[in-house]
């Protein structure tokens, strides 16, 4: 084990083409958590490379050569002997014993019960995505629809992206979880219960309800799947979303642009931690902002006005100030007696301060 530690210590880290994220590491001991390929390793390597090489040790805990019992015995002494001040444990295994050091950096898919600073690293939102684009022009939004928010997708050839993402998900998920994700990709933006998923999957594979519910909850906890509750009805069936639209492209052939567009809007709201709910006829209700947001990629003013008329009761009773229809490229303001109605292109909406 000492030989392996020495090998890692002598490694020259590489982090080619790193692009700054909205999150950055400071001098605190930190756990960075997020789904596979959200950029955790790149963030840590960028931070370590800003320090003198002899002061840090980077370990990838997935390395099958690591004997955890031996590691627990030798790692503290190794760090002391080499005057290491920063220890980075990528893909941290909870069986590895932690000890006092100037700074520990850990990565995990989930938040762990540790007395450290927690950093949740999401996939790219649209603003971050633009920093990864080689040029900013009218093609950026189309690229976002194709690539989604996985940072590495910019480096993968277009013909390889589907198989690349399938491979990432196969390694990150258990087989039943991969099946759940594939089924969820067909039902995205719909009201879906755990029982609905069980009914769909039991015809494909042998599985118990309890096992499915357990794995579904794990995927929700880790952030591969997302749910949206109904306003003022916490027990109502929730709407189901993917953490990223690229997953739908990778796992199912059927395309439904309206659902992809709605998922994209949900992802932007979710990444910015905006409180929101759905209601009948309403894609997203944002109570703290007094807003309703509709996913309307190709809306026209007449159809939107009729839709808002059907929601007048909800608008009045909840004092909704504004109805925003997020579109692909249509921009307009409609005159309505009880609420402001705006049609805003996705790019402008996603990059606005609110």
SSE layout:
Blueprint: H1 2-10, E1 30-33, H2 40-48, E2 56-60, H3 68-81, E3 86-90, E4 103-108, E5 117-120, H4 126-132, H5 140-147, H6 161-172, H7 175-186, H8 194-201, H9 209-222, E6 225-228, E7 239-242, H10 245-251, H11 257-271, E8 277-279, E9 282-286, E10 291-295, H12 301-309, H13 312-317, E11 322-327, E12 332-334, E13 340-345, H14 346-350
Parallel strand pairs: 1-4, 1-5, 2-3, 3-4, 10-11, 11-13
Antiparallel strand pairs: 6-7, 8-9, 9-10, 12-13
Describe this structure in words.
The protein has 14 helices and 13 strands. The chain is an alpha/beta fold and 354 residues long. The chain has three domains: 119 residues, Rossmann fold (3-Layer(aba) Sandwich); 126 residues, Winged helix-like DNA-binding domain superfamily/Winged helix DNA-binding domain (Arc Repressor Mutant, subunit A), CATH 1.10.10; 81 residues, no CATH class. The strands form three sheets. It has a six-stranded mixed sheet with strand order 8-9-10-11-13-12. Strands 2-3-4-1-5 form a five-stranded parallel sheet. Strand 12 and strand 13 form a beta hairpin.
Tell me which CATH architecture of the largest domain applies here: Orthogonal Bundle
Instruction: Work out the helicity level.
Output: 25-40%
Question: What is the overall number of helices?
Answer: 14
Succession of helices and strands: HEHEHEEEHHHHHHEEHHEEEHHEEEH
Which runs of at least 5 residues are low in confidence (pLDDT < 50)? none
Q: What structural class do the secondary elements suggest?
A: alpha/beta
Largest sheet descriptor: 6 strands, mixed
Mean of residue pLDDT values: 94
* Strand order in space, largest sheet: 8-9-10-11-13-12
């Amino acid at each position: 084990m000492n030989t392996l530690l020495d090998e890692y210590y002598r490694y020259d880290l590489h982090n080619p083409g790193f692009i700054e994220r909205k999150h950055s590491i400071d001098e605190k001991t930190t756990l960075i958590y997020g789904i596979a390929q959200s950029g955790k390793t790149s963030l840590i390597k960028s931070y370590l490379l800003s320090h003198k090489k002899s002061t840090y040790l980077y370990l990838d805990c997935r390395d099958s050569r690591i004997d955890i019992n031996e590691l627990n015995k030798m790692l503290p002494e190794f760090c002391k002997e080499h005057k290491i001040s920063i220890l980075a444990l990528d893909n941290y295994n909870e069986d590895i014993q932690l000890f006092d050091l100037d700074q520990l950096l850990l990565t995990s898919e989930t938040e762990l019960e540790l007395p450290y600073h927690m950093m949740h690293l999401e996939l790219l939102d649209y603003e971050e995505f633009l920093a990864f684009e080689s040029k900013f022009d009218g093609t950026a939004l189309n690229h976002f629809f194709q690539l989604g928010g996985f940072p590495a997708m910019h480096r993968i050839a277009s013909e390889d992206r589907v198989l690349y993402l399938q491979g990432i998900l196969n390694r990150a998920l258990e087989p039943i979880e991969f099946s759940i994700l594939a089924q969820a990709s067909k039902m995205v933006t719909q009201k879906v219960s755990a029982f609905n998923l069980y009914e769909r999957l039991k015809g494909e594979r042998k599985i118990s309800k309890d096992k499915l519910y357990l794995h579904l909850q794990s995927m929700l906890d880790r952030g591969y799947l997302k749910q949206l509750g109904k306003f003022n009805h916490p027990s109502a069936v929730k709407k189901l979303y993917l953490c990223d639209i690229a997953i739908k492209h990778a796992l199912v052939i059927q395309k439904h642009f309206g659902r992809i567009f709605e998922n994209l809007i949900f992802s932007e709201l979710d990444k910015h931690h905006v409180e929101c709910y759905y209601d009948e006829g309403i894609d997203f209700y944002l109570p703290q902002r007094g807003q309703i947001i509709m996913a309307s990629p190709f809306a026209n003013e007449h159809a939107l006005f009729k839709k808002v008329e059907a929601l007048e009761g909800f608008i009045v009773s909840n004092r909704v100030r504004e109805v925003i229809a997020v579109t692909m490229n249509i921009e307009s303001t409609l005159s309505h007696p009880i609420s402001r109605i705006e049609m805003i292109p996705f790019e402008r909406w996603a990059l606005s301060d609110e």
